[in-house]
Amino acid sequence: MNDVALHLSETLDHILASIPQFKPEFALIIVFLFSIIATLFTDRFWKQSSFFVSIIGYIISFFSLLPQLHQPTSGFFGMLVIDDFSVFARGIIVFALLVSTIFIQQHFKSKISQKNLGDVYTVLLTAGLGLNLLTITTNWLLVFIAIETLSISSYILVGYFSENKKQSEAAMKYVLFGAVCSAVMLYGLSLLYGFTGNLDFTSSAHIQGLTAAPQVMTTIALLFVFTGIGFKLSFVPFHAWAPDVYEGAPTPVTAFLSTVPKVGAIVLLARVTQAWTTSLFYFGELTILFITVVAIITMLAGNLIALRQHNMKRMMAYSSIGHTGFLLMAVLVAPSGDPAILLFYLCAYVLMNLAAFAFIDALEQKTGATELESYAGLGKKMPIIFTGFTFIGISLIGLPPTVGFVGKLLVFSSVFERHQSSGDLPYLALLITGALTSVISLFYYFKIPLYAFLRGGQSEQNNHASVTLIVVIGIILTSLVFGIGIFPDLLLGLFK
Amino acid sequence: MITLTHFLVVSVCIFCIGLYAVLAKRNAIMILVGIELMINSAVLNLVAFGRYDKVNYGGQVFALFAIVLAAASVAVGLAIILSVYRKYKTIDPNNITDLRD
Questions:
Q1: Which of A144, A172, A223, A244 to mutate to test the interface with B (most CBs of B within 10 A)?
Q2: Residues 6 or more apart from B50 whose CB is under 8 A from it?
Q3: Which of A236, A245, A365, B23 is the most buried (most CB within 10 A)?
Q4: In contact, A229 and A152? CB cutoff 8 Å
Q5: Chain A residue closest to B75 (CA)?
Q6: A462: burial class by Cβ within 10 Å (0-12, 13-18, 19+)?
Q7: A255, A226 in Cβ contact below 8 A?
Q8: Where do the TM regions start and end (chain A) (predicted)?
């Protein structure tokens, strides 16, 4: 007891000194409380108050992030690790959350719903908190808390409206699949804790304990842990939920689900691989092998199944599974140098997907459908939307002069460098699969202009294109995709 | 004398029972029960291992957080299953298949 009393003041001092490093997340927590208050009280007088509270919250969080740039520190007894990688990742996350919030506000503006929209913004803020935590930690306890915070918020976002049968089915599939994956991950974490007695996955005690443990048990525990990460990333074989949930959820929620959670999970996976592959133990190689195999299967499965989809949201789900494969490839080569390439690809992915969902949402509001067939002949009526959509398709394939091309080029060239320096065959297999699947993806992305411009519409409805805010955001994101595609140094120089 | 091994064997058994309940897929509530069993087997593991970690009590702390988070996700799960029941009048996952390839 005396021991505790002696260290208590030191401990308290340390905790107090660490609080300033927690500012961006602290801002989100405060705004979360304000958002609840706004939903309960002020929404009656002014319907948009909770929306503006959360927008202000993201902006505050972003600006309290800026002082952390180029000042790597750690706080709360090593629970938080703040470096440039996490600062940039959180910047991308906050930006994507801001855009998703505007999507939600625009999507439900015209609809009369019994549900209170303010709660959705509140839940989105907690999802942001979980994501931010995921990027700044190397401790398994905090990783688990962050993943659960994010997962529970996502379940609520998908199931909150339950307007029709499909939405509640998607929510149920999501919550059951997700809870099973996180339970399996928890069991794996408990095994890791038992082998090492330490929860920090970068610490030497952790790595030594894993090496000393029986090889079979370590492998099982690692596979269990990767189950939880794999669910968040939706790589094969944990992708089964993604198409159903993406199709069933409201379109702005799908825009959130397909972009932001992946940023957090990829950062975590990159940290794990960096910590384990630099230590020359067998499970470092095991991790590399696992990620290589999963990346190849994910790229192939995602792009091949996307070919025969007719629902636009379902197609985007498989396309994002395919992109997860590319992201895994980028994770694999990230340890060689700085994470600039990985961050660039993440940024490109987020921009492209948000723009694509902006157009899908705008079209859904005009035609009421998300099937590819319903786009037939609309190209002449809504030239702005479909021109933008086609360019985003080009970027998603990875053709110049777009940001998708630069991202893929950077990832390919660093994988090729790795292959030349080590001569390992898995890297060559990754390269071949990546090139092949990019060609495959051309066939389904080009269905969009094919239906819109070349197929005739069956009826002459008079739905003329009015320019809404969501289209404007889509156009801005598209021009960003182009601008960064032509001048990639603007973004790369920032990450360096 | 009850050793660590006994705890681990019990927790593996509970985990497998939970996994079976999930994979049998008869009823959404049964899946949630299976998930709860799996989480509790992990909690048992954590507490058993935590006995050897007298410095930080990492295992016990982890177990507490795991219990709280499991309760939260099960609460959300039950609410969602309720809304599914209102739409479909059944909670058998095999009958709820509007979304598929």
A1: A172
A2: B57, B58, B59, B60, B62, B63
A3: A245
A4: no
A5: A152
A6: exposed
A7: no
A8: 26-42, 49-67, 87-104, 116-134, 140-162, 174-196, 216-241, 253-274, 280-305, 317-334, 340-363, 384-407, 427-446, 467-487
Compute how many other C-beta atoms are within 10 angstroms of the C-beta atom of residue B85: 16
Apex A205 CA angle, A204 and A211, nearest 5: 90
A-B contacts (CB, under 8 Å)? 131
- How do residues A461-494 score in pLDDT, each as one tens digit? 555 557 789 999 999 999 999 999 999 888 888 8
Q: Do B96 and A172 touch (CB under 8 A)?
A: yes
Chain B hits for A315, Cβ within 8 Å:
none
The pair of three-digit structure tokens given for residue A210, joined into one six-digit string: 């894993």
- What residue type is assigned to position A323 of the chain? H
ipTM tops the 0.95 cut: yes
Q: Which residue of B has its CA nearest to A162?
A: B83
**Model pLDDT, residue A337:** 57
Q: For residues A319 and A441, is the Cβ–Cβ distance under 8 A?
A: yes
Q: Where are chain B's structural domains? A: 4-95
Q: Do A165 and B66 touch (CB under 8 A)?
A: no
- C-alpha A184/C-alpha A5 separation (Å) is 38
Query: Can you give the pTM of this predicted structure?
Result: 0.94
Each residue of A133-192: pLDDT tens digit?
Answer: 999 999 999 999 999 999 999 999 999 988 888 999 999 999 999 999 999 999 999 999
Paired with A446 in beta bridges are none
Residues of chain B short of pLDDT 50, as ranges, are none
> Quick check: B80 and A141 CB within 8 A?
no
Say which CATH architecture domain B4-95 belongs to: Orthogonal Bundle (1.10)
Nearest to B76 among A168, A175, A199 (CB): A175
Q: Would the CB atoms of B32 and A179 count as touching at under 8 Å?
A: yes
Long-range contacts of A461-469 (CB under 8 A, 24+ apart): A463/A366, A463/A367, A463/A381, A464/A381, A465/A366, A465/A381, A465/A382, A465/A383, A465/A384, A465/A385, A467/A384, A468/A106, A468/A362, A468/A365, A469/A102, A469/A106
